[in-house]
Amino acid sequence: MALLNFRKKETAAPQAPVAEVEALLKDYSIEVMPRTAEKVEDFRALLPEGTRVYIAHIDGTPIEDMVTTAARLNADGFKVMPHFPARIIKDRATLADWIARYQGEADVRQALLLAGGVTAPVGDFTDSMQLLETGLFDEAGFTRLHVAGHPEGNRDIDADGGRLNVDAALKWKNDFQTRTDAEMAIATQFAFEAQPIIEWADSLKAAGITLPIHIGIAGPAKLQTLIKFAIACGVGPSLKVLQKRAMDVTKLLLPYEPADVISDLAAYKAAHPDFNITHVHLFPLGGIKTSATWVQENGGASGVPADAA
User: Fold this and answer.
1) Which InterPro entries does the UniProt record give (predicted)?
2) Can you tell me whether residue 176 is helix, strand or coil?
């Protein structure tokens, strides 16, 4: 079992014990796209058995490619969770067709529902609540539905940078779970600093939003790559963590690793067992193998790949 090799932080905060980090990383999930999945020869050599693998559906990706990727991952024994971006789904018939394809060809029974990254909807749907209201996922027997969360807000939803609309949407989704049989959770955008994440998660709980949170974390990557993705994805104030690092010439060429934010979240969760962040969801911006290897090195048994268990 490898030990964490944490960097010294500018403000020396105590690092979480290895066991606490392992506990937070247990049952982590990861995200792929069809074109990145094609480059991976064997997922079983990288990921723990039964890992939940989200498949991001970028506008322009044919549904056939999505379903083929889902079928491959399912055959390898992983929990497959494709994205359903509302704004790129033309109408109810298209949604029903996608659900049927995923079920019939890939045995998929779970999904991440989100608005999607495009500005103008191509058809009838503008948000994930409308997808839920169709009832099609329930009729098809989907057992788990995740929805998007934004620890630092989302200017596509709240243009003023606040949280009024995004929090109202989460409250609606929380209420949806209580009146249905859906097993739901919040899968979030990535952020780089623990304290704002903690404050956001605690505020949801205080507002009566009890959906468990799968917190988005950017996996190891070149600093320039992360800054590019963070700006494109609308990451908020925690972007300053990367910008500060970029100003230090001794760190500029070193890859970023999420050790600090993971450690801080793990320590908080150990001190607050009822903390509503229950899982880590990795965005492998530096590559799937790079992120999976990092978890293997830092997550103990939580990161053991399927073929090595």
Assistant:
1) FAD-linked_oxidoreductase-like (IPR029041)
2) helix
Q: Do the Cβ atoms of 128 and 114 come closer than 8 Å? A: yes
What residue spans define the domains of the chain? 18-302
- Topology adopted by domain 18-302: TIM Barrel (3.20.20)
Helix axes 223-232, 239-246, angle to 10 degrees: 150
Distance CA 101, CA 108 (A): 9
Summarised one tens digit per residue, pLDDT across range 262-282 is 999 999 999 999 999 999 999
Q: Which of 199, 238, 200 is nearest to 218 (CA)?
A: 238
On whether the CB atoms of residues 131 and 86 are closer than 8 A, the answer is yes
Per-residue model confidence as pLDDT tens digits over 79-117: 999 999 999 999 999 999 999 999 999 999 999 999 987
What six digits make up the tokens of 20? Answer: 């606490």
Q: Which helix (H) or strand (E) holds 213?
A: strand 213-218
**CB 148, CB 128: distance < 8 Å:** yes
3-class secondary-structure state, position 170: helix
Q: Cβ(83)–Cβ(55) under 8 Å?
A: yes
Which has the closest alpha carbon to 16: 306, 218, 263? 263
